[in-house]
Amino acid sequence: MPSLHYISHAVALALIAMLIRKYIELKIYHDDVMSSCYFSEANHENSEVENEIEHETPPKAPVPTSDDPRFLTPEYLNQKLFSDGSSVTCNPTDHAAQRTCHFVNLCYFAERDSYLFFHSDKSILENIPVNRYSPTLVELSSVTNHTYNHFNYIDMPVSASRLFHIKWVTTSSLIIRRFKPDNLMHVIHDDILPLFQTLRHFNLAANTSDRFHYRLIFDDEWGEGPFLKLYDILSVYQPIFKSMLREAPGLTCFHQAYVGLVKSTAWYDYGFYKPQGPLPERKVSSIEINSLLEYTRRELGLSINTDNSDYLVLVSRKSTRLILNEIELSLALSREVRTKVIHLSQEQYTIEQMIEVVSNSIGIIGMHGSLLTLAMYLPAGSILIELFPYAVNPDHYSPYKTLVSLPGMNILYRAWRNMEQKKSFGHLTMGNIEYLPHDEQQRIIFQMEVPRHICCNDPSWLYHIYQDTEVDIETIISLTKEAILATKTENNRAVDKIATNFVIPDKVTHDSCKTMVDGSKQIIIYWEIPWNLQFFNYEIVEYEVLLQYTKSPEKSTIFRVSASSITLEPSDSFYIVWVRCCLDEIHIGPFKQIACVE
């Protein structure tokens, strides 16, 4: 019979073996967890990127895949990369500015500050231009034709992917490059509106009322910026900054990455190649603007009550382009217009607070500057009065006028320009004109108007736009009263121009051809208005009439008429008549053929 000593020894060995086994299991689990981390929060205080594999369903990839989000572990993704390599599908276009691409297994290599594409016999490259460096494959910003925004990748064999340590981002990602995130005009116009439209285009929301299920990748050198909240509310995940990518050793690979923005929401050209101005073929309207506004207000939890709007917003600048008699202007507005005035500044309000204040106001008054972009949040029937320093022509700098004039915005715009140099106070440091010869300084200072120029460092423009101004209070009061009165008149007889912004008239209807019986043998062509126009409001309806002659088919004549008939002189051959409707001078419908014989 074994002694108690041997029994105790056996029990101790079994216990030690069990503890060793448990330790090994915990060690393996710990290693698995650590390998699934994207970025360590300890290495970046601003990083809130989850240290676990996310389990959202990835969007449709450009190659058939059996990926199950439950199995998107680093080991699984590594094997998929080693075997399948990378793939990319772009929309079919010849223009980089219009191109968007969807990548599978796109990898960022911090050491080279480049993206790598690993080619295998399973890689798919769809709609990739033959020369993707002419000028580039994709633009990372909605600001077009600027080399700062160019994106491309470096070709690598799939065998090389095994040489790197890899960290994975399994969430669907959208890679962009912010143009100027410290300026609200650039944030809204260049980033937020195009982002919102792009996310809806790729259908990256689980439901229409949800935040989007993707991760935003900032491929730029900027920090967070003062308006990061507007980016944050577009995603259920925290963004990844380029500084975070650079800290990761080896490769950071994106399982699903979208590159390129939908640019149809842009309305302004900043003037890199010609003087700035509205884009000639703007496609954006209040439909796109209001969709973003509704989303923004909901996600920020803002309280909107336009029924009790009874105050004006006066934009207050604290460093440059000051209104030197701002307090006097505010008191006069309150007294003469009989309304409260709220002073709004970026230094004293958060972006959420600014949006809420503007959304419940009756209008904005302020010097030309990026905070006037908040006018997009004004209720319909509001006013925007933009003030300009001396020598700055409002007609040459109109991003905010263009914004509130988009179809359906229904915001009345007025501009005031300082015409008295004695009420203008400039700074030689602005535009660096202090370093110019004295004669050149004097020429700029005493200019009556800034000449047209290219963006962005023209010394005359920079000197004059940053001038402080003593504004003409009486004129601004009069302008404000007139604008408020005009909004009431406009609202009473408003035409819903948004309804016809994208409307194409159908073919003309009930057409007929009759010959006069009075001996003149004239032919009268009749038609009726396209049937779908009865459902829309419009201002101008005209018709183009194209005549062809059967005996001389190369001969044709074009008329434009406002009536729904035309009288033709007799001819020795058949007339072939084509008629089409033109709505508000720009929206042209299809031709309808009418055959007539003398």
From TrEMBL:
Which InterPro entries does this UniProt record tie to the protein? FN3_sf, Glyco_transf_61_cat, Glycosyltransferase_61
**GO CC annotation terms, alphabetical:** endoplasmic reticulum
Q: What is its main location?
A: membrane
UniProt keyword annotations, A-Z = Glycoprotein, Glycosyltransferase, Membrane, Transferase, Transmembrane, Transmembrane helix
Q: Which residues form the Glycosyltransferase 61 catalytic domain?
A: 308-384
Q: Tell me any Pfam family this protein matches.
A: Glyco_transf_61
Which terms does the UniProt entry file under GO BP? protein O-linked glycosylation via mannose
- Protein's cellular compartments: Endomembrane system
Q: What is this protein called?
A: Protein O-linked-mannose beta-1,4-N-acetylglucosaminyltransferase 2
Q: What is the lineage of its organism?
A: Eukaryota, Metazoa, Spiralia, Lophotrochozoa, Mollusca
